Amino acid sequence: MGLLSLGTPLPWHEVEKYTDHVRQHGIQQFLYIWKTKKDIKSNNLLWGDEVEYMVVSCDDEHKRALLSLRQAEILKALEENEHKERLIEETNNVPLNQRIPSFHPEYGRYMLEATPGTPYTASLDELVNVEKNMNKRREIAKEHMLPQEVPLTLASFPRLGAPGQFTDPYCPPTGPASRSLFLPDELINPHARFPTLTGNIRERRGSKVAINVPIFKDTNTPSPFIDRTIPLDRHIFPEDANAREGAAKPDHIYMDSMGFGMGCCCLQVTFQSTDIDEARRLYDQLTPLCPIFLALTAASPAWRGFLSDQDCRWNVIAGSVDDRTEEERGLKPLKNQRYVIPKSRYDSVDWYLSQSPEFRPEYNDVELVIDPAIKKTLTDAGVDEQLASHYAHLFIRDPIVVFSELVDQDDTKSSDHFENIQSTNWQTMRFKPPPPDTDIGWRVEFRPMEIQITDFENAAFSTFIVLLTRAILSFRLNFYIPISKVDENMVRAQRRDAVLDEKFYFRKNIFASPSHMHDEAMTGSETSSEGSSESFESAETNTSSPRKTAPSGKVEDEYALFTMNELINGKKIHYDGAADDGDNDVYEFPGLVPLVRSYLDSMAVDVSVRCRLNAYLDLLSRRASGELQTAAAWMREFIRGHPDYKFDSVVSEEINYDLVKAVEQLTKGEEWDGKGSKFLGGIRASL
Ligand code: ADP
Ligand code: MG
Ligand code: MG
Ligand code: MG
Questions:
Q1: Is residue 483 part of a domain?
Q2: Mind listing the pLDDT tens digit for each residue in 237-292?
Q3: Number of domains forming the structure of the chain
């Protein structure tokens, strides 16, 4: 969540008058940034993670775990603490690795977001600071909470919106912004932006959002499953009719409010590139990895008090902010709207951005809905077609929240209108241009991952992603597959036990350059584990052009289906490539973990740092092989093994409480009655 503008948010019927104004000025603001920043170089890698928490309040007497709505008080205390610590830092010259974390508000009034405070640098030694910093954030957050409150990194709260009490204090499930049958408006961050976002999405859409997640059919789950907990007889708001009129589907868990999705927690990683071209390239290269990392981090098996037949939050959030009208969803002929739009504004990437030699236009194989006038404005100003299409696509959306005080802006000083549209296109990847008047460079954000229960895992996934970007640059890796296949992988990634049971489309030959690159990547060059560690920058970046001519051969021959184990740990495949890699018929798919290992082998890394990084790589490797469980699988097993579980898919208050207690114990580095062993498998050595 970026900075929160202060002011008076307009209701939807007022926002409608300004949609074109915001779009046009937003594009002018982008153009100003592009013209002034397109040639800048940022020689330092800077990067950082974002961790989101739920503040859970435990009522030990009644065995209930509730979501504490004290975000504002907690954030105020945390802000005062940060201020105090910064003063101490200034006077005492505190080293960077003791950086002061910073905390931010999030959509849910029970949520917090925390970042390292100052971005991490390119030093390899710094990589161990990630987990330390995450530990510190959790400690500081806990110190500023009530004794019964605890910050937990749960991707979704199993009993959010379930019958009975799930917030502390209790609030009846009703309210004018969301008009939900299940969630009180009181659980929305009260800053004007959030209730307005909620209400305006509903109004623009013309109904409440409707999310239907398939129920997990256990041995005693009725079939068909008809959810009797939906109050179909309620008549407070006109939208109460939605559920009666078919929005709630049999055999599904029905959810009707933005809070179900935006109230989930995720793990994001942002990193700065050396220039705009590298940012575009990394944006593309990470795009096919999004579903892979969504599946690997799956942590959301239960919704509204029921076990679901999926493991991830992604499609719930996509549905929870889907502001498309019936015309835009293709349910009615276009009359008042301009386009039929295939996806929610929260969804996966639709368009590759890079013009690097590995790119083939055929990879952008999903028909892109664009605003032609915006594309023309951009291309007339000199922006290339591919980048222009990206923004002409993002800018088919309306702004949802407009503050009356911010309607008129100086397009050379502000990027508010641009950010308004850009930051409400919640894609798996975000291409972040430099804000005006800063020395920040072109950044890319990796956004699909679910938050993990422990800091160990969150550090493992964050550092892995940043190391993978270095391996991509260093070995000149090429992960391109058609966007339609990435979309298909997104569907597969969310299914129950996707890591074990699904296969994913992936590129067979990921080495863009001739075969010597492959050898180098697989063997590493010099290995050294002594002496001072290097920084990422000193790893030689392979800037050689991989080929002089565009790749040829059928795109369909470039990819195949892989298991997660093969993708992460490697596999020998038969490669009958019509493509251009010479005559290698049997080709080893190296696996992402071995690739990162090779990258590390080519660097001088301090022994203790390497040891920690090995533990991270082990986690990924063993999770991909199925030896260790995802959080979703572990939670599902915990719920199904609980004495109070009736094999009817219901996650009772008692089960929820015990699960929360087990999660809390895991965050402290302990196992829960040994039941966590298949989850972390004892690989978490202390830092
Ligand atoms: P948003 O919510 O818009 O995605 P945040 O500011 O919450 O962004 O978090 C972005 C992350 O990027 C943080 O971890 C922060 O430390 C990191 N970061 C800050 N400045 C830079 C930079 N110049 N380059 C790369 N990362 C940065
Ligand atoms: Mg956030
Ligand atoms: Mg943020
Ligand atoms: Mg972010």
A1: yes
A2: 999 999 999 999 999 999 999 999 999 999 999 999 999 999 999 999 999 999 99
A3: 1
Residue pair 550/498 in contact by the 8 Å Cβ criterion: no
Distance 253 CA to ligand 3 centre (A): 29
270 lines ligand 1 (CB under 6 A): yes
Which of 3, 4, 50, 52 to mutate to test ligand 1, by most ligand atoms within 8 A of the CB atom? 50
List the domain range (segments joined by +) for residue 578: 455-539+554-628+662-672
Say if CB 476 and CB 510 are below 8 A apart.
no
Distances (CA, A) of 417 to 21, 104, 399, 559: 9, 22, 8, 40
Residue 423 CA, closest ligand 1 atom number: 3
Q: Which residue has the tokens 């809070």?
A: 259
Ligand 1 contact, 101 CB (< 6 A): no
Do the domain assignments include residue 358? no
DSSP β-bridge partners for residue 637: none
- Please indicate, yes or no, if residue 59 is contained in any of the structural domains: no
Query: Residues 312-363: pLDDT tens digits?
Result: 999 999 999 999 999 999 999 999 999 999 999 999 999 999 999 999 999 9
Q: What is the pTM of this model?
A: 0.95
> Regarding beta strands 102-105 and 149-152, do their DSSP bridges make them parallel or antiparallel, or are they unpaired?
unpaired
Predicted confidence (pLDDT) per residue in 388-439, tens digit: 999 999 999 999 999 999 999 999 999 999 999 999 999 999 999 999 889 9
